Amino acid sequence: MMSLFGYSQKDWFGFERYRADNERIITSKDYPEVVFMGNSITDNWDYYHPEFFNDHHFCGRGIGGQTSAQMLVRFTADVINLHPKAVVIMAGTNDIAHNDYYVAPEHVVDNIIAMCDLAKVHGIIPLICSIPPCSQFPWRKEIQDPGQSIVDINTILKDYAEANGIVYIDFHAAFTDEHLGLPKTLSDDGCHPNPDCYYTMEEMVLEALKKK
């Protein structure tokens, strides 16, 4: 990506990741039923189980390492412009891990609420996923007690969802272990779901979509 001054700049917001596929969808008007907006957990989901997305005409828009602010900025390009009926939003892990910068918990919630508001304005039904459990970030081991921070943000997200009639998908309650992380049977690193874990997540999402 070239700047006005002729040198390369990092595509920090991730606009280029799905640009070509977005153009294909828009040109063909083959709009997905549901877009999944997220970070590496969503990105891996599409990678491990492409048949889940293909069979249901869903669209994965996860980018590894992204924070809620980055997702918010690309929300128009990767969700609204694709005209889905619903969007499944899962964000917050990388904010708590302080990827690139520190974000106060209330701003993480604000970013997710802003995505919900954008969706609703454009006639798209938002569903909020809890931040999945994680007791330690393998790439940011210096972050202390992320498990409790995740619980605190999830509590606010759940209350917001219930107060505003938004379906809340509680992966955290379904999977957390005694250390507030993902158990070894469901994750190789205690943070990212393994392929088998996604099967249960898929059942939960499909059930949640019936409620929308």
Describe the structure.
Helix content is 46%, strand content 10%. With 212 residues, the protein is an alpha/beta fold. The chain has one domain: Rossmann fold, CATH 3.40.50.1110. Strand 4 (125-129), helix 8 and strand 5 form a beta-alpha-beta unit. The protein is globular, with a radius of gyration of 17 Å. The termini are far apart.
Can you tell me the CATH superfamily?
SGNH hydrolase
Which CATH architecture is right?
3-Layer(aba) Sandwich
Strand order of the largest sheet: 2-1-3-4-5
Distance between the termini: 39 Å
State the major sheet.
5 strands, parallel
Q: Give the H and E element order.
A: HEHHEHHEHHEHEHH
Mean pLDDT value: 92
**β-strand amount:** 5-15%
Total count of helical runs of at least 4 residues: 10
**Strands, count:** 5
- C-alpha geometry: globular
Structural class: alpha/beta
CATH class division? Alpha Beta
Tell me the Rg in angstroms: 17 Å
Q: Assign the CATH topology.
A: Rossmann fold
How many domains? The number is 1
Helical amount: 40-55%
Low-confidence stretches: 1-8
Summarize the structure.
The protein is of the alpha/beta class and 212 residues long.
Question: Can you tag this structure with a few keywords?
Answer:
212 residues, alpha/beta, Rossmann fold, five-stranded parallel β-sheet, 10 helices, 10% strand, globular, disordered N terminus
Helices and strands in order:
Layout: H1 19-28, E1 34-38, H2 40-48, H3 50-56, E2 58-62, H4 68-73, H5 75-78, E3 86-89, H6 93-96, H7 105-121, E4 125-129, H8 146-163, E5 167-169, H9 171-175, H10 195-211
Parallel strand pairs: 1-2, 1-3, 3-4, 4-5
Helix pairs in contact: 2-3, 7-8
